[in-house]
TrEMBL record:
Keywords: Nucleotidyltransferase, Transferase
Source organism of the structure: Klebsiella pneumoniae
Record GO terms (molecular function): mannose-1-phosphate guanylyltransferase (GTP) activity
Residues in Nucleotidyl transferase domain copies: 4-61
A GO BP entry: GDP-mannose biosynthetic process
Protein name stated in the entry: Mannose-1-phosphate guanylyltransferase
Domain of life, source organism: Bacteria
Amino acid sequence: MLLPVIMAGGTGSRLWPMSRELYPKQFLRLFGQNSMLQETITRLSGLEIHEPMVICNEEHR
Protein backbone atom coordinates (compact mmCIF):
# COMPACT_ATOMS: atom_id res chain seq x y z
CA MET A 1 0.00 0.00 0.00
CA LEU A 2 1.14 3.54 -0.71
CA LEU A 3 1.91 6.09 2.00
CA PRO A 4 0.87 9.56 0.79
CA VAL A 5 3.17 12.36 1.93
CA ILE A 6 1.65 15.85 1.83
CA MET A 7 4.09 18.74 1.90
CA ALA A 8 2.39 21.62 3.74
CA GLY A 9 5.18 24.02 4.57
CA GLY A 10 6.28 27.47 3.58
CA THR A 11 4.85 30.89 4.23
CA GLY A 12 3.16 31.39 0.87
CA SER A 13 4.77 34.76 0.29
CA ARG A 14 3.33 34.95 -3.25
CA LEU A 15 -0.16 34.89 -1.76
CA TRP A 16 0.53 37.80 0.61
CA PRO A 17 -1.44 39.55 2.13
CA MET A 18 -3.89 36.61 2.33
CA SER A 19 -1.11 34.28 3.46
CA ARG A 20 1.03 35.33 6.41
CA GLU A 21 3.68 33.70 8.59
CA LEU A 22 1.12 32.76 11.24
CA TYR A 23 -1.57 31.81 8.68
CA PRO A 24 0.20 30.11 5.75
CA LYS A 25 -1.28 29.22 2.37
CA GLN A 26 -2.19 25.62 3.24
CA PHE A 27 -4.81 26.94 5.71
CA LEU A 28 -6.42 29.34 3.23
CA ARG A 29 -9.88 28.69 1.83
CA LEU A 30 -9.48 29.74 -1.79
CA PHE A 31 -12.35 27.73 -3.29
CA GLY A 32 -15.31 26.60 -1.18
CA GLN A 33 -15.49 25.75 2.51
CA ASN A 34 -12.26 23.77 2.95
CA SER A 35 -8.66 24.85 3.26
CA MET A 36 -6.13 23.86 0.62
CA LEU A 37 -4.80 21.19 3.01
CA GLN A 38 -8.29 19.78 3.62
CA GLU A 39 -8.96 19.68 -0.13
CA THR A 40 -5.74 17.77 -0.70
CA ILE A 41 -6.60 15.18 1.96
CA THR A 42 -10.16 14.88 0.60
CA ARG A 43 -8.79 13.94 -2.84
CA LEU A 44 -7.30 10.82 -1.26
CA SER A 45 -10.65 9.48 -0.03
CA GLY A 46 -11.72 6.20 -1.54
CA LEU A 47 -8.16 5.10 -2.32
CA GLU A 48 -6.61 2.03 -0.73
CA ILE A 49 -3.69 3.79 0.95
CA HIS A 50 -2.17 4.28 4.37
CA GLU A 51 -3.16 7.32 6.40
CA PRO A 52 -1.40 10.34 4.85
CA MET A 53 1.68 11.85 6.47
CA VAL A 54 1.60 15.66 6.55
CA ILE A 55 4.97 17.43 6.61
CA CYS A 56 4.74 20.98 7.99
CA ASN A 57 6.60 23.58 10.02
CA GLU A 58 6.76 22.79 13.72
CA GLU A 59 4.72 25.85 14.71
CA HIS A 60 1.79 24.61 12.58
CA ARG A 61 1.51 21.09 14.00
